[in-house]
Design a protein that fits this description.
Helices cover about 75% and strands about 0% of the residues. The protein is elongated and about 60 Å long.
Amino acid sequence: MCRLVALASVLAAHNDLLYQCETGHLLRFYYVGTLLLLSIAIFLCISIIYISAHGTVADDRPRARLPCLLYVRTVLLVPDFVWIAVGTKWAFRDEAGTDCPMDAVAVVCSVVIVSWLLQLAFVILILLFFDPLGRRHLSTVRDSQQLWKRRFCICC
């Protein structure tokens, strides 16, 4: 949610700069697409949280739709990656810096870098939590506890 607010405020603050360059329409298009994908992701996350809060350990029927929502959120990574790649190409590869103010280009570059870092973190967390034992079939509870302790030591 903070990322959505920050991105919308950056777009509002730098909107005048976007009209000063020829390729500013690409930047506005990138911002609007990012806001749209981020809004969909936030809606899915709120839905996942809402459905996760229902039911009990013994009665998981209210959470029956939860795997579908998780898969939809995971599939949403593909358009996110494509969209970030488009932003990367525009910000770092094209001649965006030649006719646009440096402030506008710097903002796009920082948004793209933060987006790549967030996507990388999201993929790592998916791999960690969708495969909690690391494709191993650990026979004892103690072995699985040691595996989780090692993982969290790496993260922290």
